[in-house]
Amino acid sequence: MTVIVTESLSKRYPRVTALDRLSVDIAPGVTGLVGANGAGKSTLIKILLGLAPATEGTAHVLGLDVTKDGSTIRERVGYMPEHDCLPPDVSATEFVVHMARMSGLPPTAARERTADTLRHVGLYEERYRPIGGYSTGMKQRVKLAQALVHDPQLVFLDEPTNGLDPVGRDEMLGLIRRVHTDFGISVLVTSHLLGELERTCDHVVVIDGGKLLRSSATDEFTQVTTSLAVEVTDTDTHPDGTEALRAALVSAGAAVSTDAAGAASVVSSGHLLYVEAPGEETYDLVRDTVAGLGLGLIRMEQRRHRIAEVFSTADAAAGTPATVPATAGAPHATQDGGAHDAA
Ligand SMILES: Nc1ncnc2c1ncn2[C@@H]1O[C@H](COP(=O)(O)OP(=O)(O)OP(=O)(O)O)[C@@H](O)[C@H]1O
């Protein structure tokens, strides 16, 4: 039993191959679709919904052919688009009822399902306020609710954690998991962060430059080296909190670093520090160092390496036939800056 099958699916635009002979076979459950920006995730979703034609290859969703059965697919599949597309002047209730009616639910059922769905996504209290005053997290929940309101068998969630802070991300990931456990709805969720999908998904599909890099059960990913992303506040004593923490960790890090090459294991990127975390003691070290400096800890979360690094390591270890293109994980030279997103 599969919910999505594609065979040698390609989508070529005049200057870009967005999908390149992609063959995947996705079972019921929660599946993550991971790829850098421009990897082809949104393109795949549009083809699977029957909204954009493929250049070649075939795709079936819930056993239905995307070229012939697009409208039936859209009745049975919910879709949460990536970008903010909500009308600011109406309330969550009005909007979600409207979407329920658009999917064919009669008025009473639409109202009941809307109330249930908004309660499920945690928006019950605010449901009569205009969406324009909502936080990003609340807007993402409205988008999730409208994807679920017609009780689909499958939902496509395009970057649902985009723009959320760490707490908001965790809450959204928990909600997504419950969409499957509470309602039995299968989920295809995209992200450019492998780490967050690993926690949520049964299965992860990784694409890069429109090609399949890897498709496997989540627990097969867990052996991969991890690093910690740490973000701290600045204080009067430490006007550059990130640098203060970096320096303190580097001096303490000599003791904890197990880096085989003996290289410094703390690198800084903007306001984020990436700390190699071979074991749990690194978490304690970071926490204690942050506290010792009197900084505020904004986030400390497990991070994966860039997808290309993860998969070149994982593939070598697992001996899978997936190949890693030389450009894997690199920003797409051909990316058009997102102008297509409005389409
Ligand atoms: N309508 C279009 N016309 C031309 N090129 C397009 C169009 N839609 C997408 N592309 C290109 O196809 C490639 C894949 O885009 P896609 O939106 O599927 O990527 P993505 O993985 O969803 O990334 P993002 O999260 O940034 O949207 C990109 O190089 C993009 O510029």
UniProtKB/TrEMBL annotation:
- Asked if the keyword Transport belongs to this entry, the reply reads yes
Q: In this record, what's one Pfam family? A: ABC_tran
Which keywords belong to this entry?
ATP-binding, Nucleotide-binding, Transport
What positions does the domain ABC transporter occupy? 4-234
Q: Name one GO molecular function term.
A: ATP binding
- Extent of Low complexity compositional bias: 321-334
**Which InterPro entries does the record associate with it?**
AAA+_ATPase, ABC_transporter-like_ATP-bd, P-loop_NTPase
Is Transcription regulation given among the entry's keywords? no
* Annotated spans, Disordered: 321-343
Q: Which SUPFAM superfamilies match?
A: P-loop containing nucleoside triphosphate hydrolases (SSF52540)
Superkingdom as given in the UniProt entry: Bacteria
Q: Which family does it belong to?
A: Belongs to the ABC transporter superfamily.
- The entry's protein name is ABC transporter ATP-binding protein
Q: Which organism is it from?
A: Streptomyces kasugaensis
